[in-house]
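FAQ: What does the model actually see?

It sees only this:
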Amino acid sequence: MELTDADLIARVLADDDQHAFGELVRRHQSSVRGLLRQLTRNDMQLADDLAQDAFVRAYKNIRSFRGEAKFSTWLYRIAYNCFRENARKRKELVGINEEQWQAEQDPHTIDPGLRHDLMHALSLLPLHERSAVLLCCQNGLSHQEASRVLDIPLGTVKTNVLRGREKLKKTLSAWAT
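And it is asked to produce this:
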């Protein structure tokens, strides 16, 4: 029987079980890294560094996890805060490293041209809309969960998702024909 996130968290809290936390990292690292890669406009090295920082912070602060939301939501919040702090320090947002991006794409999953255009269209969105779209549409969070992650009102998340999706539709309209 596979342990739930709650079971693993309980083991970490009770026994400082690093193996249990390692399992939490294995379960969630792909989605956290994916979110951060999108937020950093595919700067893979920065995204991986931020993900590592997010997991270190999560481990150090696991006692503050109250279970009011899913563990993944709490983790996304930490990762998003790591991204924001880093962006503030750099006072800029990172552009796409085209060669690195191309090397990591799986040509069997989606038309490479569409993927490229989607990545570009996402990079054109303002950060607040891009973040909401990525959390809700790509990572499957509810608007309420995204509201917690982004620390903004629920209505603002809904508006940002709606506006971001409309902009994406407009930018990608050539693919509809």
